[in-house]
Amino acid sequence: MHEALESAFSLDGRVAVVTGAAGGIGREAAITFAQAGADLVIADVGEEGLAGTAEMVRAIGRRVVVRRTDVSDVADVDSLARTAIDELGHIDVWANVAGVIRYFPIVDAVEPDVRRIVDVNLLGVYWGVAAAARAMGSQGRGSIINIASAGGDVPAPTLSVYGMTKAAVMHLTKTAAAELGPRGIRVNAVAPGFIETPMTSPQFTDADGTVDPARRIQVLAVKSSSSPLAMTGETTDITYAMLYLASDASRFMTGQTMRPNGGVFMV
Ligand SMILES: NC(=O)c1ccc[n+]([C@@H]2O[C@H](COP(=O)([O-])OP(=O)(O)OC[C@H]3O[C@@H](n4cnc5c(N)ncnc54)[C@H](O)[C@@H]3O)[C@@H](O)[C@H]2O)c1
């Protein structure tokens, strides 16, 4: 690859914090960032998954700090930022990937479910943006990446709360970009379409955890049918967009939502 291009997309010497890194898109983001040269601070409530991700990052040859963190807890998120600075010296990239999904009709909504989705998917991102901005402000540079969803663009029955949190994340991204740009901090979002991960696989998994191959094919076919490309995505379809936003390749980009979604929604 041409040297200028390689350096534009490189994360050499950078420190990236990734929440939701125990599996799925967050784990893949940690791997992609490590492959691009970053050292990692990985956070999640799932400690076993985090250990697995840490192993993968180490195998790539990058340093990794593991920190169990509940992103809905502001003190925990602040402490994650402090750990990153104490252990690795600075924070250049902060990716808010942690999220939860629950399906229920509005008429059946119960308060604990509604509050949990808002606490993790929206306030978890908010606390992450705030902690990252404080850490990056003193450096005068940084990139914050928030994971939204096509569910924040396309209204889907039973996903009222999930959808509203993801739409709000896209708006928060714009406000934060406007506020933090003068301090050298860029804030962008990525709104994925359907990706097969631990979040979506229960749609074709039996109660004992085994995948039902026929149901899997059926679900993927239904999801693909709303894409002009007739496909669903893979985790790297999201993390390559995240790498662009994390790196200097996107230095002129802030307040935007990238939509690797197979074309299921177009702006
Ligand atoms: N998979 C998809 O099709 C899809 C589509 C659009 C958006 N997304 C978004 O992508 C992000 C990653 O999802 P995924 O598909 O990789 O699912 P996933 O379930 O594999 O990953 C989510 C991670 O977040 C962690 N998490 C949950 N609550 C947490 C909390 N309070 N604090 C810290 N970590 C917590 C989970 O333990 C899990 O490891 C989510 O924000 C999700 O909404 C996924």
From TrEMBL:
User: CDD domains, alphabetically?
Assistant: SDR_c
Name the Pfam families on file.
adh_short_C2
Provide this UniProt record's keywords sorted from A to Z: Oxidoreductase
- Molecular function terms in GO for this entry? oxidoreductase activity, acting on the CH-OH group of donors, NAD or NADP as acceptor
Similarity remark: Belongs to the short-chain dehydrogenases/reductases (SDR) family.
Q: What is this protein called?
A: Unannotated protein
> What is the species listed in this Swiss-Prot or TrEMBL entry?
freshwater metagenome
Organism placement in taxonomy: unclassified sequences, metagenomes, ecological metagenomes
